[in-house]
Please model this.
Amino acid sequence: MTFETTHSVTLKIWDRSAVDHTLDAVVNDISARANAPKHHIAVTCSGPNTYTVSLNRNAPKAPTFEDVTH
Model:
């Protein structure tokens, strides 16, 4: 999978029972490869059984539990 040049990858997942597991694995892999936190990775449904996973290094910081409770 070449990710560095486009900063996104499109997946066609036919097995509905594998969607969550597959997308979670892709997000973890991209996060590790790009050395980026998971909240910089977006997953969108871009068509029937089609998902686009993209990296946004300028994404705002995700709120932490402490941010929400204080």
Notes: Strands lie at 8-12, 41-47, 50-55. Residues 42 and 54 are 5 Å apart (CA to CA). Residues 19-34 form the longest helix (16 residues).
